[in-house]
Task: inverse folding
C-alpha cells in the first residue's frame, strides 16, 4: 500500500467528513457519543430549541443535530411570563411531540423548576418520565455544584445529562436576568461549577450569559462540549431560542440574539391578506372549491 507523506495526508478540518454533526451523511439518530466525538474533532455545532412536532421537523430536515425542548417553552410557547410555572406534564407532552417530529436530531428534554431541586431521587423520577414517556435521548437541568448529586445519579442510571450554568432562568426570582461570572470571585465560581458538572458525568454544559473570555476559558478547560447562549464565539456549540432567532417572539429580544428571519411580519402579513380576501369575497375561488 502506498504510504502518504505527512504533507499528503488529508487533514480533517472541523465540521468536515461524513460523521460531522451538521452536514454529515449519517441519517440515524444522533447520540451523546456523537457529541463527545465532535469535541474530540474540534467541531462546532448548532442547537435550537423546539416545542412542537411541525417546527421540529423543519429543523430536523435542515440538519440541526441537537434540539432542546427548553422550559423556555414557558415564555415562548405557553404564554407564561417566566419558565418557573412550567410543569413536568407540560415538558413531557412537548418533548414527546418534538421526538415524534424528528428522526435524526438528539432531543434533550428540560427538567422544569421543581422537578429535581428536592434531590437526586426526585430528579431520577422526573428524568425517567421524559425518557420513557417522551422518548428524549438526554435531559437538561440547571445548576453547577448545587446540582452535581442529581447529575451523578441520572448518569449512573443511564440518563445522559446536559448541565446549564451561568444565568439559570429558573432562579430568576433570586438571580434576575443578569450577566454571570463578572469579577474574579464570580469567574472562579463559574469555573468550579463547570468542573463540578463535568466530574458528575454531564456530557455537555450550557453557558448562558457569561463574558466571552470566561466562556472560552471554560471551553478550553473542559473535555465536554460547552454550548453557548450569550457567551461569545469561543464555545464548542451555540444554542438559540427558535422563536427569537426566527423573529416570532413579540417585543424585545436579548442583544445576543441574531435574528435570521422576521416570521412575525411574514405571518401577520399573510393572515391579514387571508382576512381581506375573505371579507372582500376573493377567497375561496372556484379552484379552492369542491364540486
Ligand atoms: O429553556 C431553554 O430554552 C434553555 C436555553 C436558553 C439554553 O435553557
Result:
Amino acid at each position: 500500500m502506498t504510504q502518504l507523506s505527512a504533507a499528503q495526508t488529508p487533514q480533517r478540518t472541523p465540521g468536515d467528513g461524513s460523521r460531522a454533526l451538521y452536514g454529515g451523511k449519517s441519517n440515524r439518530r444522533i447520540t451523546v457519543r456523537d457529541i463527545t466525538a465532535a469535541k474530540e474533532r474540534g467541531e462546532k455545532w448548532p442547537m435550537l430549541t423546539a416545542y412542537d412536532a411541525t417546527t421540529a421537523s423543519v429543523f430536523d430536515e435542515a440538519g440541526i443535530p441537537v434540539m432542546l425542548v427548553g422550559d423556555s417553552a414557558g415564555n415562548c410557547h405557553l404564554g407564561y411570563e417566566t419558565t418557573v410555572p412550567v410543569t413536568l406534564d407540560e415538558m413531557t407532552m412537548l418533548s414527546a411531540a418534538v421526538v415524534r417530529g424528528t428522526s435524526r436530531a438528539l432531543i434533550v428534554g428540560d427538567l422544569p423548576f421543581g422537578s429535581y431541586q428536592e434531590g437526586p431521587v426526585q430528579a431520577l423520577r422526573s428524568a425517567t418520565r421524559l425518557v420513557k414517556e417522551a422518548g428524549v435521548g438526554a435531559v437538561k437541568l440547571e445548576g453547577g455544584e448545587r446540582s452535581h448529586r442529581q447529575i451523578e445519579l441520572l448518569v449512573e442510571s443511564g440518563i445522559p445529562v446536559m448541565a446549564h450554568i451561568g444565568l439559570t432562568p429558573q432562579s430568576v426570582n433570586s438571580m434576575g436576568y443578569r450577566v454571570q461570572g463578572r469579577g474574579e470571585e464570580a469567574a472562579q465560581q463559574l469555573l468550579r461549577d463547570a468542573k463540578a458538572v463535568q466530574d458528575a458525568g454531564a456530557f455537555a454544559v450550557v453557558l448562558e450569559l457569561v463574558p466571552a473570555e470566561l466562556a472560552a476559558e471554560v471551553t478550553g478547560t473542559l473535555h465536554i462540549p460547552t454550548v453557548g447562549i450569550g457567551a461569545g464565539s469561543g464555545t464548542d456549540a451555540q444554542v438559540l431560542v427558535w422563536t427569537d432567532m426566527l423573529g416570532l417572539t413579540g417585543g424585545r429580544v436579548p442583544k445576543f440574539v441574531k435574528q435570521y428571519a422576521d416570521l412575525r411580519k411574514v405571518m401577520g402579513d399573510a393572515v391579514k391578506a387571508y382576512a381581506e380576501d375573505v371579507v372582500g369575497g376573493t377567497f375561496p375561488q372556484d379552484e379552492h372549491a369542491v364540486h
Observations:
- The two ends are 71 Å apart (CA to CA).
